[in-house]
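Worked example 4.2. Below are the chains of a multi-component assembly; read each line carefully before continuing.
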Amino acid sequence: MNMFSILHCELRKIIRANVFWLVFLVFAFGPIMMGAGIILSSNTGDLNWQIYLTELLNNLAALGLIGYTFIAAWVFGREFTDRTIKDLLAKPISRSQIVMSKMLIILVWNVLLSMYMFAIGLAVGSVLGLTGWSGDFILNTFFRFVITSLLFIAVTTPGTLLANISKGYLAPLGLILVIVIFSSVMASLGFAPYFPWTIPSVFLSTGFLNLNSIIILASTGLAGIVGTFAWWRFAELQ
Amino acid sequence: MNIFSRQKNSGTAAIKIEGLHKNFGDYKALNNLTLEVRRGEIFGFLGLNGAGKTTTIKALLGMLRPNSGQIYMLGEKVDAGNYKLWDKVGYLEEATFYPDLTVFENLVIARCMQGVSDKESVNSVISKLGLETHKKKKAKNLSLGNKQRLGLAKAMIHNPEILILDEPINGLDPAGVAEIRNMLYDLAKNYGVTIFISSHLLEELAKVATRIGIIHNGNLIQNIEMNKLEQSLQKNLVLDGRDKNAIKNVLKAHGYGFEETMDGHIKLIDGHVAEKPEGLAELLVKSNQPPTLLRVITEDLEGYFLRTIGMGRGNA
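Applying the procedure described above to all two chains together yields the following structure tokens:
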């Protein structure tokens, strides 16, 4: 069986689940509330698209990390909570293909979510009449936000591993809440370029990452991926 | 169904388990389990809850790694890496499904995951399992019996050579039980499918299995063809008379062991007496205690099972 067929199965499973639509519904509130908050609380009168988007996307980073990790954990963890993991382990498909297809689906879903949040942020700004629209700036900001999101998505892989180890998606969700709190501590102490879950925010602010940050981020992402593949290859299902 | 590949490997056993051990910490779930299931057999795997049935099935499906021992199916070693083997094996370990998907969609997923290219296989298995009226229903809204049917449909969608079923009739009504039983019988008899079916319901297994294995404390303690089971059932002589005490005295005097049954009759403990009941009748008549009741009773299947695992009816 080819990879396309497995991907088709995964896609169907996700699109038909209520969670898929609920995620988009819930994560619309973030940019709406934050965007409206930034605009309505600004009394200086010089708020423009540049200031608005910079502030909004900084605020959205933590929310995005929670969303991306939830999605990554849910795609694996729901197989345990629905007990359908048993339907996947003894099939004429290598387990690594199943993991690969799930990871690709997570990537697509998360990128869609990040674009969706960006679009909602734009819509809020437009509705509330922000001035200073610049196509180049918006495009550059969009690309920087998508790359930041991809960096965040890279460090959700320890969450997928935890979802498999803990046989559900609640443990990774709990972990990411702790990480978000810890991230603000690390950032305030000046360790943001060295903590995997704050490194993407560094890129968002500066548009640049040093080699150490890249190595730390890549190692964390890779550890999660390798761990998840290994779990599927060797773990037992009691 | 790939008849050619079946013939090619028909010399090897469908399932072969050799000296399987599986421990969970200090608990020995499987203790040197050895068994072989021939092709086309319906093997009834019987045991109490916790005897090791589900552990065996999970090991068969490569979901648990044994501490020692080997498992082969259709001549191939079972291993998590040998995934192509599952093309020929269908299983129902637990009736699971994606709750927000309909019956039809769940089966489309099962078809894709089994690599079945024929799209008609979904409708075909729906019709085989009698799920036509429920095909558009979300799986989470099915009754327990229909969830079980959906589980069976997923196990059978690719026409496997081996079907491994853990308690497949759970939740089915009597008509459903009979229907599934007939279907399994048909699969084995007419299509040569090997069926490994576990249950704690001996009466039900006895109606469909061609051979029964009894597992107890992780070890196979009995392995018997159904057509030989009748000979293994214990037979006892039960008698009664006008003066029960006098009869008991006669029996004691001639060395017969006996016990009183719950309905007040006298049951001879030695099963051999049941082979020649006329000898005892003659003795009682000569002792002036002619029996008013003399009957050979054959042990029922539940009694046989409990006796095999060393339990009485009272302490099972």
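Take a moment to check your reading of the output against the notes. The radius of gyration of chain B is 24 Å. Residues 235-298 of chain B form a domain with the Alpha-Beta Plaits fold (CATH 3.30.70.100).
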